[in-house]
Specification:
The complex is a heterodimer of chains A (123) and B (133). Chain A has 123 residues and is of the alpha/beta class. Chain A has a single domain, classed as 2-Layer Sandwich (Transcription Regulator spoIIAA), CATH 3.30.750.24. In chain A, 44% of the residues lie in helices and 18% in strands. Chain A contains 4 helices and 5 strands. Chain A has a 5-stranded mixed beta sheet with strand order 1-2-3-4-5, sandwiched between helices. In chain A, helix 1 packs parallel to helix 2. In chain B, helix 1 packs antiparallel against helix 2 and helix 2 packs antiparallel against helix 4. Chain B is of the alpha+beta class and 133 residues long. A 5-stranded antiparallel beta sheet of chain B has the order 1-2-3-5-4, covered by helices on one side. Chain B is globular. The chains are: A alpha/beta (123), B alpha+beta (133). The interface between A and B is medium-sized, with 22 and 26 residues.
Chain lengths: 123, 133
């Protein structure tokens, strides 16, 4: 199950549509790291609303994804973690430390707008 | 209404299949949605351990009854190398595979009951139980 990646302005939006295998997740991570360069994106949103399980592998891969895209010059925000999934993650000790999150797509876009705001030109 | 499913675990897609079976049964038995999620997450971790450490194995998912209590038992079995240091494996943060090392202690926290048997000759069997609230 490949995850569609949409380009919207300076952002890339990956909207997960169904449960993902480990291979799918790794593919998504690598595809985003590559597309950030291709589209000169400044921000990435990964929408995980439909994921009903976030286990240690998924957490680690999303964390790596966020760190890789940051090294490529784009900020990543994970949106849509469901309350029950969040509960299970905390029980497992998965906190996604160092990764930005937002409630939903709308909040994610607002977050990126704020975070990637360009400096006002000098002089 | 006894129900029992065995899911062979050989690849990463089987991990997804196993946790979906677990959730299906939990929903069928009327588990609250949070507990279905905890169960599915625990199954995912156990199935992942099989793929990562033993390459192949199986996960048995069955309903259980005790008096008027209903629950689900999950048995994750493999013939892999076994866990050489069980107390270390149950420590938070310990991993021999470069993972997060949260697997087994985390799974134990998600479940009502947790039982681990492992040796080099017979592989590893993890049994977990979750009762309907």
């Amino acid at each position: 199950m490949e995850v569609p990646i949409l380009k919207q302005g300076l952002y890339l939006i990956a909207s997960i549509q169904a449960a993902l295998s480990d291979v799918d997740l790794v593919h998504l991570r690598d595809a985003l790291a590559e597309k950030v360069g291709k589209f000169r994106a400044r921000g990435v949103i990964v929408d995980v609303t439909v994921l009903d399980v976030m286990d240690s592998f998924a957490s680690r891969t999303l964390r790596d994804l966020a760190h890789m895209t940051r090294l490529r010059g784009a900020e990543t925000v994970i949106v849509g973690i469901q309350p029950e999934v969040a509960f299970a993650m905390v029980q497992l000790g998965l906190t996604l430390e160092g990764v930005d999150t937002a409630l939903d797509l709308e909040e994610g876009l607002a977050f990126l707008d704020k975070k990637t705001k360009r400096h006002t030109p000098r002089g | 209404m006894a129900s029992k499913t065995v899911v062979p675990i050989n690849t990463d897609t089987d991990v997804v299949a196993a946790r979906q079976k677990g959730r299906e049964l939990a929903t069928e038995l009327g588990f609250v949605s949070t507990d279905s999620t905890l169960l599915a997450t625990a199954i995912s971790e156990l199935a992942r351990n099989i793929v990562r450490y033993a390459k192949c194995g199986e996960i048995l998912i069955a309903s259980m009854q005790s008096g008027d209590r209903v629950g689900i038992t999950v048995v994750a079995r493999d013939k892999g190398p076994g866990i050489s240091n069980m107390s270390l494996a149950m420590q938070d943060g310990f991993s021999t595979s470069g993972g997060l090392g949260l697997g087994l202690p985390g799974v134990k926290r998600l479940m009502d009951e947790f039982h681990l048997v492992s040796d080099a000759n017979n592989g590893t069997t993890v049994t977990i139980k979750k009762w309907k609230r």
